[in-house]
Amino acid sequence: MARPNFDDFDPDFASAAQWAAMYRHYGLQIIPCCSPTEVKPGTSWKRPLLSTWRTLQEELVPDATFRRWYDPQTGDYRARRNMGIITGACSGRAFILDLDLHKNPAAAVWWRGVLQLHNNGSEPETPRQRTGGGGLQLLFRAPAHWTAPTNRTERGVDIRGQGGFAVMPSSLHDSGEAYAWLPGMAPWEIEILEAPEWLCGEIVKLVGATNINSSPGNINSPDGNINSPAPDHGQADRKTGDFDPFGNRVDGREEHMRDMVWRCVVKLRRASPIPPTGEEHQRIIDAEYEVYERTVQVQSPFPLESKRAGLEREGRGASAFLAKWQYAMRQWYEDVAIAAAQPDPSPEAVDPAAEFAAATATAQQTGKLFEYLTVEQILAMADPKWLIDKLMIEHSLGIIYGPPGSLKTFISLDVALSLATKQPSWWGYGIHHTGTVVYISSEGVANLKFRMQAWAQHRGVDIANAPFRLIRQSINFMKAEDIGILLETVQAIVDEAGPVAAVFVDTVSRVLPGAKENQQEDMSLFVAACDQVRNRFMTTVIGLHHTNYAGGMRGSTVIPGAGDFLIEVSRDAGEMQGFIRAKKIKDGEDGWDRPFEATLVELGDIGGHSSLVVDGVEKQANDGTGLPEKNVLRQILAAIDEQWSKGKPWCHSKVSTRCAETNISRRWEIDRKVAARILEYWNANGVIEEEEADAKRHIKGYKKLLEI
Hints:
Layout: H1 16-25, E1 29-32, H2 63-70, E2 83-86, E3 94-99, H3 105-118, E4 128-130, E5 136-141, E6 151-153, E7 157-160, E8 165-168, E9 180-181, E10 193-194, H4 197-210, E11 211-214, H5 253-271, H6 278-294, H7 307-313, H8 318-329, H9 335-341, H10 352-366, H11 375-379, E12 386-388, E13 392-393, E14 397-401, H12 408-420, E15 425-426, E16 429-430, E17 436-441, H13 448-459, E18 468-471, H14 480-497, E19 500-506, H15 520-537, E20 540-545, H16 558-562, E21 565-570, E22 577-585, E23 593-602, E24 610-616, H17 630-645, H18 660-668, H19 672-684, E25 688-694, E26 699-704
Parallel strand pairs: 5-10, 14-20, 14-21, 17-18, 17-19, 19-20
Antiparallel strand pairs: 1-2, 2-8, 3-5, 3-7, 4-5, 4-9, 6-7, 6-11, 12-13, 15-16, 21-22, 22-23, 23-24, 25-26
């Protein structure tokens, strides 16, 4: 975007005369303003100082007049800090959108909704200032065919257009705070944007629906009302002026589109609380748009232009339809859910046979078919791509779960930092895609810095500039508003640090406050929210979750059913060893175990801090007979002896966490049959024996009797 040439302006040291010259340089009608101390108590000070200011609304004052006001040596107001602009024609059609965000939440809701609907949630690139009272004001230029109104609305959204006045920096507010342009968003840093058509339309709708007062002669003028009836274009005899002779809607298409989208989305919610995703969702959107397109017509068709292209050109086509659909879907858990809970207002009962016949006729008319693939096409499809070999697939949803104290957070942090610091592998499994990592956690964040420092020290990796970002606020994945803010936050992180390789949610229960984890509907909200993050940023989402009393994953089966990978973490309390088990790996081998070992790393700082770091234990070699090497057998026997000494002996029972066969198999990556054979041989030859270690608690297990 082109930058205006005013590089020598310094807002920190500029005099009032220099501020005024800057505004005039950009064609803005700057005039002196009252200050808070110059008016009677209870009277607004945000008004021009000049009583004749209304005569200055049509064109910029001559240079001689401006010099009389703001000449640096002789100007009448050269030292007056408070100033403002007259908006409208005299300022090159400039107008102000004033959002009273600090006092009226409705202003933020309206603005966020408008941006989501029309601009993919992005703020327009135009000058904006923070007022002394904490509000936000955006400066635009009105298109030549439209006159911006001057209105104050009950939503806390005010428009200062033709005949309006707005206080500007460097003015001082009665709060004691100065008005100030936001960094990088001053008129000398960024061009004043011509207001897009969608913003003009939303302003007109807002003013028409909620205006408290307005300047006369603006809203209904021929060039000011962008929603005025369109020319007839020779299409006479429309019903109420909205339809052509064939019953196709020509006027009111935006409202028709909005209502149609809303009805469709509410109908989907009535059918299932789980929102559609992926290709299924796109098919629904395409089918509904086909219905919309058949019922409307282009207002001003061009020769040889298709209806679809004409509607798109007029802003009433597929792009607008998709934007409205996406906006409605963002209300899935709030307004849509409320509407869906009401009885279906359709008066007539549905005849399944008639409905099927109508649907068949529609399909025949459009010629639209679902995609189908031949064997050759199926075999030519791209292979799934691993994020981490054998463990995680790109763009997937996965869960790492285990009981409290199992070290699942340390393992997750190990994965996250490996991705963010571009490590070639994790525990020996190749990493194929690295990048920015977003870590969502409101639990235990005070110790996170020590965990990260210990990891960096233990691994010998510099993490100072790693693209690792922590979100520590509490987020409710059951609220659409929170998910909307999360999506925008991740987008800001992407803009700052680059594409996201993974998003971690630590823990699932923390982002579902008040949810009934055994209820399918509540847990479906978590999956749906993760899908929105995953699909928008083409990333992998990894949730951390707890186990139930039986040792399985807590809550409804929705999460394990939706998860592309499930990793179970287990560790006996106080032990420095544990295991991960691949319970489910979509498109890969699962059911395997991998032992890990925790190391306490002393940071060597003045506070004497330390933290654990988790390492995967390498697979042990064997001697070619199917049995481990001698030194490994001695390690196993030493571990059996150690467990006996601790009062937590490994035992024969396969349902206990102390199962010797399981612990040996996992820690040394030995086949379970081989582990069972070792125990059987040692037991038969008097190397070990199963005895009662604690008679009071009836704890029984293996005790070492001989060395090998």
